[in-house]
């Protein structure tokens, strides 16, 4: 109490003596910390920039593998985490914020018109000797796969490789850019990517006659889709709900669409 009284007296004295007033202390910027998988981090950083321009809220985005995210969000070091179809969500708050897709890529010279999930499974398990069996060129398929535990590998395994094993002759590509390079280097290549990842210069094959797009994903016509979930350690407050609500508005949906994400 005496300290509060002293500060009050000091303030009155300073004003009464006509001394120079102190400049106002700047209000520290509001900051949110977001966590996302490597395939979602570029989208989150673009959304963070657009949201800051609109609201003045600064957002820091880190990335981690899907298996690491539940434990990291439970520590309370992040406001929100974004992950493709998470497994371990016990005790966490969650909301469905978007829909992504697994896309199938081939060499630009491969003119196969469309594929069904069981044909993709056969290609990756080594049961197709030539693309000509599926309407493509007479060249042997060369599957290109991703490391275990990566978002693309998890989604592909859940949506396509529901049974059977990947052929031992498959080539491993560690990044989306590595996939692009491998596909362009081999006429028989077949690979998978996520709709949130870059896919320049390679050919994306329609699945069951549907090409992946925000419209076909949102409309349920494209078959290889997965939910994108926002996780929080507890019920979000106003700062977290602000960015989640913004993502479902016009500006947020535009950023999502740019990165191949459809609304839920």
Secondary-structure map with pairings?
Blueprint lengths: L1 H15 L14 E6 L4 H15 L2 E6 L5 H6 L5 E5 L8 E14 L10 H9 L16 E4 L5 H9 L11 E2 L3 H10 L3 E6 L8 E2 L9 H5 L6 E8 L5 H10 L2 H9 L6
Parallel strand pairs: 1-2, 1-3, 5-6, 5-7
Antiparallel strand pairs: 3-9, 4-7, 4-8, 4-9
Keywords:
alpha/beta, disordered N terminus, D-Maltodextrin-Binding Protein, domain 2, 2 domains, 264 residues, 9-stranded mixed sheet, 9 strands
Model description:
- The protein has helices at residues 2-16, 41-55, 69-74, 117-125, 151-159, 176-185, 214-218, 238-247, 250-258; strands spanning 31-36, 58-63, 80-84, 93-106, 142-145, 171-172, 189-194, 203-204, 225-232.
- With 264 residues, it is an alpha/beta fold.
- It has two domains: 31-98 and 226-258, D-Maltodextrin-Binding Protein, domain 2; 101-218, 3-Layer(aba) Sandwich (D-Maltodextrin-Binding Protein, domain 2), CATH 3.40.190.10.
- Strands 1, 2, 3, 4, 5, 6, 7, 8 and 9 form a nine-stranded mixed sheet that branches.
- Strand 1 (31-36), helix 2 and strand 2 (58-63) form a beta-alpha-beta unit.
- The chain is elongated and about 60 Å long.
- Residues 1-28 have low confidence and may be disordered.
């Amino acid at each position: 109490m005496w300290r509060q009284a002293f500060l009050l007296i000091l303030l009155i004295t300073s004003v009464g003596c006509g001394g120079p007033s102190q400049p106002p202390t700047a209000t520290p910027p509001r900051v949110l910390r977001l966590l996302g998988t490597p395939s979602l981090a570029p989208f989150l950083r673009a959304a963070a920039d657009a949201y800051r321009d609109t609201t003045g809220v600064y957002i820091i985005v880190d990335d981690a593998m899907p298996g690491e995210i539940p434990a990291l969000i439970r520590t309370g070091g992040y406001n929100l985490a974004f992950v493709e179809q998470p497994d371990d969500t016990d005790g966490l708050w969650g909301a469905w914020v978007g829909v992504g897709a697994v896309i199938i890529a081939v060499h630009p010279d491969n003119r196969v018109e469309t594929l069904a999930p069981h044909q993709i499974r056969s290609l990756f398990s080594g049961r197709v000797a030539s693309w000509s069996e599926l309407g493509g060129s007479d060249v042997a398929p060369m599957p290109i796969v991703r490391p275990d535990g990566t978002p693309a590998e998890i989604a592909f395994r859940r949506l396509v490789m529901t049974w059977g094993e990947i052929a031992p002759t498959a080539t491993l590509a560690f990044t989306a850019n590595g996939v692009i390079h491998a596909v362009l280097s081999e006429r028989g290549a077949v690979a998978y990517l996520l709709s949130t990842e870059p896919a320049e210069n390679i050919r994306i094959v329609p699945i069951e006659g549907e090409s992946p797009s925000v419209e076909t994903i949102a409309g349920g016509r494209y078959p290889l889709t997965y939910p994108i979930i926002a996780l929080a350690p507890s019920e979000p407050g106003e700062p977290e709900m602000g960015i989640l609500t913004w993502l479902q508005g016009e500006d947020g949906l535009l950023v999502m669409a740019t990165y191949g994400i459809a609304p839920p």
